[in-house]
Amino acid sequence: MFELTQQQRAVRKTAREFAESEVEPVAREAEETEEWPREVWEAAVEADLVGVEIPEAYGGPGMEMVESALVSEELARVDAGMCAALGTSFGSRMIAEYGTEEQKDRILRGICSGELIGALANTEPAHGSDAASIETTAEKDGDEYVIDGVKTFITHGTIADYAVTTARTGGDGHGGISAFIVETDRDGFEVESEIHKMGWNASETAQLRFDNVRVPEENLIGQENHGFYQLMDFFEQERVGIAAQSLGIAQGCLEHSLKYVREREQFGQEIGKFQAVRHKVADMAVKVEAARRLTYDAAAKIDAGEDPTKLASMAKLYASEIAEEVASDAVQLHGGNGYTRDYPVERQFRHTKIYQVGEGTSEIQRNIIADELLED
Question: 187 — alpha (psi -120 to 50), left (phi > 0) or beta?
């Protein structure tokens, strides 16, 4: 059975204390106003909870995957929308692995110091799951690339200082895509529209337009026409992160439910004494613990340098789906109160759906798992 080390427990304690002291007091307001919580982000930068996996050589804490998952879990346990809002290091994994020394020094240090906020611009209006068919282009012109296209559902697109952007530099399919650092103050870059969502409203989302945006060839990340493969290298880690956030939602909703059923009385007794309620919270707890085992094991496999593909997809699939189930049960246990904004389970329930969509839908995860099981 997987057990946390002393250092991992310390990371969890730090993240939990931050979430309860800094995130919880403002989570409802940030969600309702749809305003990005800059002050909380600044506090997270000070606490080394932004860019947690960035190597120490570039100013980051250099956390491994288990530690990173614990941070995500604890933040999402309080509010998943705020967890998303504080994740401003998009594209940093690709830059850390494939970027030039200049790119690493500039971008990674900027993230850790709070000077830079990042976005990852990959999804397009016509291409979500089918990422190999993107239509944004990057044409070489002397020592520059000229980028044209539209990207959508871009987290932090309205506040980002740079966007790691995928564009077609070669032929059709996987092998013709490259990745670039695109600074958002370049001519031709435009936030075309803000996207309003059912949850995650503290985290801003936008559609971006690239109209003859010129970037120097030094902004190419890694090798030309290898961008798709570079991105895929990190999807397992991203999926474990999504699983960890989903786990956090489920854990938080379970805790709120246990507190509520102990306090709420009907028919002359605590509702937690009714068998139907007791069975429901028992089922919720089993689902949470199963998701925790899958998520931690997948994270540990990454830290051990082993292939995490199947387990990462299993963790992402299961944790995201039980998050919705547990949050729904939590709303039900709260009765009419659960349908109001006075109780956090309502907010967490709305957050859950994105986790079955982002970083590969549940259907895509089932395809990956089946491929891993049935491949020759």
Answer: beta
